[in-house]
Amino acid sequence: MGGNTPCVEIEANGHLIILDGGTGLIHLGNDLVRRQRENGGKPIHAVILFSHTHHDHTQGVPYFTPAYIPTSTFYIFGPRMFHEQVNEALRRSMLPPNFPIELDDLRSMRIVRDLHEAESLWLLPEQPEPMIRNIYREGPLDVDDVVRIDVLKSYGHPQEGVYIYKISYRGHSIVYATDTEGYIGGDRRLIQFSRGADVLIHDAQYTQAEYLDPVVSKQGWGHSTPEMAIEVAQAAQVKRLYLFHHDPSHDDETLFEIEAEAQKLFPNTYLAREGLDITIL
User: Fold this and answer.
1) CA spacing 20 to 30 A to 82: which of 209, 247, 259, 266?
2) CA 223 to CA 218: how far, in whole Å?
3) pLDDT digits (tens, 9 = 90+) for 163-211
4) What percent of the chain has pLDDT over 90?
5) Distance between CA 152 and CA 79 in Å, rounded?
6) Alpha carbon of 133 to those of 47, 71, 75, 113, 127: distances in Å?
7) Tell me, what's the pLDDT at 1?
8) 174, 167 in Cβ contact below 8 A?
9) Cα angle vertex 8, ends 75, 183, to 5°?
10) CA separation for the pair 149, 15 (Å, rounded)
11) What is the pTM of this model?
């Protein structure tokens, strides 16, 4: 299914949204540069959303080619203390003599900000910079043709938890829920957050047998089983479920078996695959 760590690209109404910066970001960056050449050198603008700052979700950033281009602009968001954590994590990974370029040498414009769970991002037509709005104090934005990004804090991952994102546009939505561990009876907050989504991308790293292994139990490790993901998908009545964050020890044959078993419980279940392209109309 691909050996890269998490990175998902979403395009909506001319806006580019990138979810996490794992090693998949390297290939995406190269493709963005190719597209830039084909578009006559039009500058690259993107909103980058990090679920958290664990290394497998940030390790692609030093090799992200558009970050070295002066005309590129990135609006980067993540959980509480994210601004300090991501800068520190990237700075350490790029220190000499282990890396030839330091973080401050990246020539792109980068606006990095913590995102509170009560805030949402609004991407207006022809306006690259997102508008930040407190949905409880200010209410929703009364603007047509806007892309909205909402946040849910999940506590089902070690240390400080992760952010789950929902991207909505013209009555359609995608929920990105990686690195989260399910609960007995289903994660009720995530179910409500995902209600009616077109696509739910949900962590499903371990099989049920691995999760309950009496010798090395994976309970409390911050990852789900396909059954946990399906429980959310069914209760939230989502249209399609994509199992995500595959265990590195699972070969393709194992993953296909996982997909086949999952489809018996929720037919519209699919494996997330490297290079998979989904269109929502």
Assistant:
1) 247
2) 8
3) 999 999 999 999 999 999 998 888 999 999 999 999 999 999 999 999 9
4) 78
5) 10
6) 16, 27, 15, 14, 15
7) 54
8) yes
9) 105
10) 12
11) 0.94
Contact between 109 and 72 under an 8 Å Cβ cutoff? The reply is yes
Domain boundaries, the chain: 1-122
Q: Are strands 162-169 and 172-177 parallel, antiparallel or unpaired?
A: antiparallel
d(C-alpha 60, C-alpha 171), whole Å: 32
Tokens of 158: 């070690």
| CB neighbour list of residue 80: distance below 8 Å, 6 or more residues apart | 114, 116, 160
Pairing outcome for strands 15-19 and 8-12: antiparallel
Residue with tokens 């960056």: 29
User: CA-CA distance, 8 to 122, in Å (whole number)?
Assistant: 19
* Residue 86 DSSP symbol: H
As given in the structure block, the two tokens for residue 211 are 């999760």
Q: What burial class does residue 146 get, using C-beta atoms within 10 Å of its C-beta: 0-12 exposed, 13-18 middle, 19+ buried?
A: buried
- Residue 164 is predicted with a pLDDT of 97
CATH code that applies to domain 1-122? 3.60.15.10
For 203-252, the pLDDT digits (tens) are: 999 999 999 998 998 998 999 999 999 999 999 999 999 999 999 999 99
| The residue count for the chain | 281
Place of tokens 């519209």: 268
- Taking the CA atoms of residue 208, residue 212, residue 214 and residue 216 in that order, the dihedral angle to the nearest 10 degrees is 90
